[in-house]
Amino acid sequence: MTKPQSSGKTTIRDIAREVGVSVATVSRVTHDDPRVTAETKKRVQEAIDRLDYRPSALGRALSYQRTNTLGIVLPGLGGPYFAQLIEGAESIAVERGVVINVLGTHLRPDAVAAVRQLAEHTDGLLIAGGTIPDDELHRLTRSGRVVLVAGAAEGIPSVRTDGRRAAAELTRHLIEHHGHRRLRFVGETKGSPDPMQRYAGFRDALASHGLDESGEPLHYGLDVPSGAVAARELHRGGDLPDALVCANDELALGLLATLPGLGHRIPSDVAITGFDDTALAELASPRLTTVHQPIAELGARAAAGALGDDIDDDTVLATTLVVRESCGCTEREAAD
């Protein structure tokens, strides 16, 4: 890159574009912020020297005001998943000496305006995928550091797991190990990126074995009461599939708690699986087969990125299939 000719003066955006980092990162380098890694600082400084960038003293004073606050934007604040995500982010906040400010968008009539207001008072934002539109995410990156968690948007750093692959592995276990042929998905399949990816993986596994879904997905929310409602709907229908693949543990726990009272045995009448491996999965009766994903680590990695650490554009953390008795595995198989 050569120095811009139109104005004759290199801007901070030119440096950011040259190095492939955010404007906020360049600003942190010019302020000798210790949160920037040595390698990134070296690359930015080399670009500054090469392009003869001279930051305005007035601009630096006005544009770089540390708040020592990390903003976290989630669709809701209830449930073990979000609690673990926040806990992971909090571990980084404590380490860096910053506080967190958490915003739930589900009750706000204008979520975008609320997020913009939050962004004005934070050093970085951790935003759950699917919470606000992509164009707004890109607008926010022009004034600060944004990292997505459990989602993806072009040009925005993200930290996630591969839910599609993990759900396919879980579904294949039901088909190949237990011989199930009639499987049905429980959970909303539009809107939130996580359930959409898990549903896609479910369908991938069925297709690879020449199977069709045993009924349309049961479109419910991601909480325990929704699982109980789904259980009663299935009971009224009178034709349970071999297995129910749930979008998360909370839905599965609602089914586990409700179906036995309606006369259906688990797993002999119907196998049930979840996703996330929250603490209650191990305590359920029967214990819940699920996919373990490192939720707290997702929050910690995303928080570190939002506070200035270098992260990959797409950081994908590993998941693990956890087999227990709710799918039909014995205690010995689960232990193995």
How many strand units? 11
The description of the largest β-sheet is: 6 strands, parallel
**Helix tally?**
14
Radius of gyration: 23 Å
Strand order in the sheet with the most strands: 2-1-3-4-5-10
Q: Kindly name the structural category.
A: alpha/beta
Topology pattern, helix = H, strand = E: HHHHEHEHEHEEHEHHEHEHEHEEH
Q: N- to C-terminal separation? A: 57 Å
Shape: elongated
Which ranges are low-confidence, i.e. pLDDT below 50, for 5 or more consecutive residues? 1-7, 57-63
Query: What amount of the residues lies in strands?
Result: 5-15%
The helix content, as a percent range, equals 40-55%
What is the averaged pLDDT score? 89
Write up what this structure looks like.
The chain is an alpha/beta fold and 336 residues long. The chain has 14 helices and eleven strands. The protein has a six-stranded parallel sheet with strand order 2-1-3-4-5-10, sandwiched between helices. α11 links the parallel β7 (243-246) and β8. α1 crosses α3, α8 (163-177) packs parallel to α9 (193-208) and α10 crosses α11. The chain is elongated. The protein starts with 11 loop residues before the first helix and ends with a helix.
